[in-house]
Amino acid sequence: MVKKELISLLEKNILLFTKLSERLNRDKIDFGEYSRNQVHLLVRLFVGGRIRLKDLAAQEFVPAPNLCTAFRKMESDGVVLREVDDNDRRNVWYSVTEQGAKVATGFIEMFHQAIATMFKDISKNEEEELIRSFKSINEILLNMETKNA
Fold first, then answer.
1. N vs C: which end of the chain shows fewer Cβ within 10 Å?
2. What is the distance between the alpha carbons of residues 93 and 30, in angstroms, rounded to a whole number?
């Protein structure tokens, strides 16, 4: 049985990360002509690569028609490529174009800068402790993911 303290700390950290993420998205990042959801999907495609619509919908816990709506503008802007599978016309593949990769990279850089600004006033010791802690957390979570895959 997982200790109550672990559950409580994880819950508190999830809430804190959510607040930090909302502050980043609200105060520091200019999404321009795209919605936050569209930017999230574009970056997800850029980082994860070409994917079938139904697989992305399952990963995002979003109905496929909602994704189609989100992709429509990006497709017409030339940042997302939509391809129907020749072998199975029910499958639709999405990927980023070269222009989409540039747009996604710009958003990623903006996000990195916003995070750097948010943490600019922490001490060197606090930064080192956060790095050490995040490395440890990442290692444990990756190990969990590998075992549960």
1. N
2. 28
d(CA 127, CA 121): 10
Rounded distance between C-alpha atoms, residue 107 and residue 24, angstroms: 12
* CA distance linking residue 108 with residue 66, whole number of Å: 24
> For 8-53, how does the pLDDT look when each residue is reduced to its tens digit (9 = 90+)?
998 999 999 888 888 776 666 677 888 888 998 999 999 999 999 8
Q: Which CATH class is domain 4-118?
A: mainly alpha
Matching residue, tokens 């109905």: 63
Report the alpha-carbon distance of residue 4 to residue 99 in Å, rounded.
Answer: 48
Provide the whole-model pTM.
0.77
